[in-house]
Specification:
- By secondary structure, this protein is mainly alpha-helical.
- The longest helix is centred in the C-terminal third of the chain and has 27 residues.
- The radius of gyration is 17 Å and the shape is elongated.
Length: 108
């Protein structure tokens, strides 16, 4: 793939990350009908999967990027995403339906 195609994938991945951050930080404490939202396993699992997908894409882009300045920036973004993934994994372990189990079954 050419350098332009990797640049295009990088721009798409960054847009996806910004959308995810925006969605994650919306003030959504209540539903439209006024009922409180329950915080549990499922919302954290969806966000966790989305961040893993973004991190995998960034890792592939980092591997193929030629420009050293962009590689440095992508690496910093990847490190931030990995930290967020670890935070989410901790939340998933806390809300795991199978109590006291470190292993998370996301297919359930």
């Amino acid at each position: 793939m050419s350098n332009k195609s990797w640049q295009h994938r990088w721009a798409g991945c960054m847009t996806e990350l910004l959308e995810q951050i925006h969605v994650e930080h919306l003030p959504a404490n209540t539903r439209e009908n006024g009922q409180a939202l329950d915080i549990g396993f499922q919302p954290f699992a969806l966000v966790y999967i989305k961040y893993l997908h973004i991190c995998t894409n960034l890792e592939e882009i980092y591997d193929q990027m030629i420009h050293p300045q962009k590689r440095k920036f992508i690496r910093r973004v990847m490190e931030s995403i990995i930290l967020r993934v670890l935070e989410l994994k901790e939340q998933l372990i806390f809300f795991n339906p199978r109590h006291k189990n470190r292993f998370i079954a996301l297919d359930e």
